[in-house]
CYRIA/CYRIB Rac1 binding domain-containing protein
Amino acid sequence: MRFAGMGNLLKVLTREIENYPHFFLDFENAQPTDGEREVWNQISAVLQDSESMLADLQAYKGAGQEIRDAIQNPNDIQLQEKAWNSVCPLVVRLKRFYEFSLRLEKALQSLLESLTCPPYTPTQHLEREQALAKEFAEILHFTLRFDELKMRNPAIQNDFSYYRRTISRNRINNMHLDIENEVNNEMANRMSLFYAEATPMLKTLSNATTQFVSENKTLPIENTTDCLSTMASVCKVMLETPEYRSRFTSEETLMFCMRVMVGVIILYDHVHPVGAFSKTSKIDMKGCIKVLKEQPPDTVEGLLNALRFTTKHLNDESTSKQIRAMLQ
């Protein structure tokens, strides 16, 4: 009798997995086919700068002390100059991050175009065009890492606020500063909106995805949301299936996979009319959260926080109590 029960259980489990797409996506070794190469080259050119952006952000110390000294001693010209000379190169660096977000936005839209176009389904696209799927994953991986670093660095907004206040004051006094050639008023306004977001890169990607959907009226929204939900399902299945996990050669790939899963869930939640947490969602949210909770807490706390604080529909009435409790 016990064996019969076991057989039924296996049937249920198999049926559960079958409800969601599942195949191995080779994040470590996927190479572009001839059909993928043009888009792949275009995205690679953008992604090649991502590591230096992260290193630059990680090394960002800010000009907090110099700014405090200048504010406390408003009549000390030397301290004013010292603060200003410390802030200007930092603002140029912040402009570089912002401009990178614009390049990333275009890259994501090119990828979405390739991964959602007929006649293939999103699942067929991701299975056939693994090198493009890997680049999509790399964009998400970069985005979550960038935003984690930005959230831990309050100096960014303090420096930029000081810069804007000083520029405004000088404009009132009719002074023109060289840096305004680099970061003019319009650019400063756009940068200000970008850095005001808790997770600016993620916001850029969700805006880009929403824009992609609204500009491609002939493409059903499901093509885009199914692409995202398929990616989430594939990552979840790879993380929870020992046979797939054993094919990763590096521990880093596990973390990569978790970041990508969380990234696509957040995008799906922003783009799909009812979001990722409703009963009709094509993402197994309980399964995804369970996979994260099974990892060492210090490695996934940032990802669980991203689900708690940067999704759009978690607090909707349609979200089950169970899911909310899992994210408490």
Confidence is low (pLDDT under 50) at residues 1-18. Residues 40 and 264 are 20 Å apart (CA to CA).
